[in-house]
Specification:
The protein is an alpha/beta fold. Helices cover 38% and strands 14% of the residues. The protein has a single domain, classed as Oxidized Rhodanese, domain 1 (3-Layer(aba) Sandwich). Helix 3 links the parallel strand 2 and strand 3. It comes from Paenibacillus paeoniae.
Length: 130
């Protein structure tokens, strides 16, 4: 194998690792459509529903009964997230909730779901805080 081929393989491996870290799923995470997410909320009344968007986004409209823990503050607020409860996460488009799930997964959380297309596709009721 020549050096150019080796460099190309290393670059491809690096890109693959980057993409997996950025977009891969977390262990114990269920990716859910809006319909499935609504069903999970109905079936698991004790689930912890977390909006991982920033506070101003949360105030503009959030799913009823959601608490706001921005992904940027997640590690500081782990005491608010019991490991023995189902955790349902959402954000604007699904990227930040997936990131939050990866963080929680690395910390041992295993019973999680996230609204894969985010609140943009929700279609259910919203509450606002002004």
């Amino acid at each position: 194998m020549n050096s150019a081929t080796m460099i190309n393989l290393l670059i491809a491996a690096g890109v693959g690792l980057f993409l997996w870290n950025r977009f891969g799923t977390a262990r114990g995470l269920k990716n859910m459509s809006p319909i499935r997410f609504q069903q999970e909320l109905a079936d698991h009344a004790d689930a912890l529903l977390i909006d991982v968007r920033e506070p101003h986004e949360y105030r503009s409209g959030h799913i009823p009964n959601a608490i706001n823990i921005p992904v940027s503050q997640l590690q500081d607020k782990l005491t608010e997230i019991p490991k023995d409860h189902k955790v349902l996460l959402y954000c604007q488009s699904g990227l930040r909730s997936r990131k939050a799930a990866r963080i929680l997964s690395k910390l041992g959380y295993r019973n999680m779901g996230h609204l894969s297309s985010g609140i943009l596709a929700w279609g259910g009721p919203l509450e606002t805080n002004t």
